[in-house]
């Protein structure tokens, strides 16, 4: 019989963490999560042990990690918002978390990063992700760093909210010409790779990209066709696009897109020259989910408020 071992995942009720935890449970492992949220409808049916992700209680973090063979880190924030939901705080929290990992004697870290991180990046998100990778590499703990371009899946935000806009507005505002590329990967493909890397001891950095590459214009056109809402695409400047995003965000009480997200997308930060590791086709997934995509807006801020 395969020996059961303890694996710790951040946010096992969130997006990528939920899929990683499910894969680990299917493989027969004991799973513990560090999280600040616990939904009423537990997707893991009580099989995941819950500990708080409390950066103000270092010893509790160490105790929550103690005995773990592998730590899967999905913790980060999407944009700067408020006192506790921002990059500088997330970076400080991550330093505490990795110190706790080392003190707890965890054997391996599997970390979810982003494509094209660089300490010289003009974008804070990509710059801080590069700093995190450096911390992990210097930790002395065996590691695998996964760099997804963009995640899609049932709980994903970007694809759904593009479809939501296509369903509700007579045109779609495209930043520039829309020819910048991206390589979406399904969240369960990322989870599969994460669990595979958890079983290894080789230090690795993997560009976790999907099997299909799209320009942003092609992605919007594909969504429009599949959900039956082919819209006129109008090229807009960054300034105009940001104004539109702010107005739509105000409608739904959310931050639709930030300047850094738009400029990063236009700068092809979600594209790399590498072999795909994902298997699930975005085109097939959109076709299978075309009846439900975009029916409801998915709010990042609402998720954060719910967690708190």
| Spatial shape | globular
Cα(first) to Cα(last) distance is 41 Å
Count of separate DSSP helical elements: 11
Query: Which H/E pattern describes the elements?
Result: EHEEHEHEHEEHEEEHEEHEHHHH
Low-confidence stretches: none
How many strands? 13
Q: What is the beta-strand fraction?
A: 15-25%
The share of residues in helices is 25-40%
Pairing-aware structural class of the strands and helices? Answer: alpha/beta
Instruction: Output the radius of gyration.
Output: 19 Å
Mean pLDDT: 95
Largest sheet, order of strands side by side?
3-2-1-4-5-6-11
Task: State the major sheet.
Answer: 7 strands, parallel
Topology of helices and strands:
Layout lengths: L5 E5 L5 H11 L3 E6 L12 E5 L5 H8 L4 E4 L13 H18 L3 E5 L11 H14 L4 E7 L1 E3 L5 H11 L2 E5 L5 E2 L1 E3 H12 L5 E5 L5 E2 H11 L5 E5 L1 H15 L6 H8 L15 H7 L11 H8 L1
Parallel strand pairs: 1-2, 1-4, 2-3, 4-5, 5-6, 6-11, 7-10, 8-13
Antiparallel strand pairs: 9-12
Helix pairs in contact: 1-6, 2-3, 3-4
């Amino acid at each position: 019989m395969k020996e059961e071992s303890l694996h710790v995942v951040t946010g096992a009720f969130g997006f990528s963490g939920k899929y990683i935890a499910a894969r680990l449970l299917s493989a027969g492992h004991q799973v513990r999560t560090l999280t600040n949220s616990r939904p009423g409808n537990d997707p893991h049916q009580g099989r995941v042990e819950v500990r708080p992700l409390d950066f103000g209680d270092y010893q509790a973090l160490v105790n929550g990690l103690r005995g773990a063979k592998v730590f899967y880190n999905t913790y980060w924030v999407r944009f700067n918002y408020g006192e506790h939901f921002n990059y500088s705080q997330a970076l400080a929290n991550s330093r505490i978390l990795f110190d706790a990992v080392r003190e707890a004697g965890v054997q391996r870290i599997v970390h979810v990063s982003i494509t094209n991180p660089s300490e010289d990046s003009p974008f804070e998100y990509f710059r801080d992700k590069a700093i995190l990778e450096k911390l992990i590499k210097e930790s002395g703990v065996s590691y695998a760093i996964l760099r997804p371009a963009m995640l899609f899946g049932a709980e994903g935000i970007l694809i759904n909210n593009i479809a939501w806009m296509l369903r509700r507005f007579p045109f779609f505002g495209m930043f520039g010409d829309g020819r910048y590329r991206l390589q979406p990967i399904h969240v369960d493909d990322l989870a599969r790779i994460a669990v595979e890397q958890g079983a290894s001891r080789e230090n690795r950095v993997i560009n976790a990209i999907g099997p299909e590459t799209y320009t942003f214009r092609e992605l919007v056109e594909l969504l429009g066709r599949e959900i039956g809402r082919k819209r006129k695409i109008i090229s807009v400047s960054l300034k105009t696009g940001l104004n539109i995003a702010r107005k739509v965000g105000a409608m739904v009480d959310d931050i639709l897109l930030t300047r850094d997200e738009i400029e990063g997308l236009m700068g092809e930060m979600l594209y790399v020259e590498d072999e795909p590791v994902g298997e699930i086709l975005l085109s097939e997934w959109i076709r299978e989910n075309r009846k439900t995509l975009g029916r409801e807006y998915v709010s990042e801020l609402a998720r954060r408020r719910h967690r708190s």
